[in-house]
Amino acid sequence: MPSPQPDAIIRIKNLRLRTFIGIKEEEIANRQDIVINVAIHYPADKARASEDINDALNYRTITKQIIQLVENSRFSLLEKLTQDVLNIACDHPWVSYAEVEIDKLHALRYADSVSMTLSWRR
Q1: What is the CATH number of the domain that holds 91?
Q2: pLDDT by residue (tens digit) across 23-62?
Q3: How far apart are CA 57 and CA 106, in angstroms?
Q4: Which part of the chain is the Dihydroneopterin aldolase/epimerase domain (predicted)?
């Protein structure tokens, strides 16, 4: 019997979206650019030996859920936005670990962005 393989890792890289994020009047009134990076670990044992989409974690479905959440919501805190995206990333029962990093672009005058990273482990 072959030894178990390490988890597969799905990475959604640099998902660029716009949302309402922040507490200042200007932030409440105007959408801002954010960049989302997600890593999802899961045992892909079935998918390694199959061509059936039902044997794999569908990253397109996950991405669509993230886009829907971000574009149709308002957030005061980067922590809350990051946690809500993480909740989507770790929702599937196969997921063993998920990590989300969200960059709020131009949040500080002399920095490219400010980011928040949260993770979850089953």
Answers
A1: 3.30.1130.10
A2: 999 999 999 999 999 999 999 999 999 999 999 999 999 9
A3: 33
A4: 10-120
Domain hosting 115: range is 8-121
104, part of any domain: yes
pLDDT digits (tens, 9 = 90+) for 65-100: 999 999 999 999 999 999 999 999 999 999 999 999
Q: Give the 3-state secondary structure percentages of the chain, helix then strand then coil, rounded to 5.
A: 30, 35, 35
Q: Cα–Cα distance between 60 and 3 in angstroms, integer?
A: 30
Taking the C-alpha atoms of residue 105 and residue 112, their distance in angstroms, rounded to an integer, is 6
In a domain, 97, yes or no: yes
Cβ atoms of 8 and 33 within 8 Å: the answer is no
- Position 3 scores a pLDDT of 62
Domain count, the chain: 1
Q: Per the domain annotation, does 3 fall within a domain?
A: no
Three-state DSSP at 61 gives helix
